[in-house]
Amino acid sequence: MIKRLLFLCWLLAISTNAYIYNDSLLLIYAKIVPKIMILDHTERENGPSSPILCILYEKGDRRTAVKLRELILANLPKNGKNSLRIVTKPYSQTEKCEEVSAFLLLNTGAERVKKAIGFAKKRQLLSFAYDSNMLDYGAIVSLHAGKRVYPLVNIDAIKQNRLRLDPLLFQVAKIYRGGGS
Q: Which residues of the chain have pLDDT under 50?
């Protein structure tokens, strides 16, 4: 009976294009992503004056994107509440994120990841991936959560995107040297 119930829940999640997210991991992302954004020293010609993060999601994951946005805002220091703007957009509206500094990619299929990463690469944007498998497609940073939590940094993607990140990030991160396109 329990197996059938779990199977039905799984089918429901798939049928609504929704993925399953770990609340603890979302909280970790909420705390770490803004800190890593501060370490981005890339000079962009048409970049915003203050950092803007765009959370991209599948239509079924809208609640997760909004929850993540709220978690990030709730965990910013009081003096940093107005220093970071966060927008949420479905993957189908990636092009509407022209004025952002960084992307946070929630789970999706490979084609949408490649499209979003391509968009970020053209504009020299920092990209965070909820799923570390997105590093294979050129995402810049993901997190590894095990006994310890640390950022995984795709050094090849940093070079391709011509990003300037503070050396402090490389002292705490593990370097990802995997696939990549």
A: 15-16, 180-181
SS3 of the chain: helix, strand, coil, percent, to 5: 50, 20, 30
Residue spans of alpha helices (H) in 16-154: 23-38, 62-75, 110-122
pLDDT at 180: 45
CB 37 within 8 Å of CB 51? yes
Under 8 Å between Cβ of 114 and 181? yes
CA distances from 105 to 33, 63, 140, 155, 179 (A): 12, 14, 11, 18, 18
Report helix, strand or coil for 33.
Answer: helix
Q: Which of 135, 158, 132 minimizes the C-alpha distance to 145?
A: 132
The structure tokens listed for 58 are 């599948």
Interaxial angle between packed helices 62-75 and 23-38, expressed in degrees from 0 to 180 and rounded to the nearest 10: 60
Q: What is the pLDDT of residues 128-141, one digit of tens each?
A: 999 999 999 999 99
Residues in the chain: 181
Single-letter amino acid, residue 51: P
C-alpha 26/C-alpha 21 separation (Å) is 7
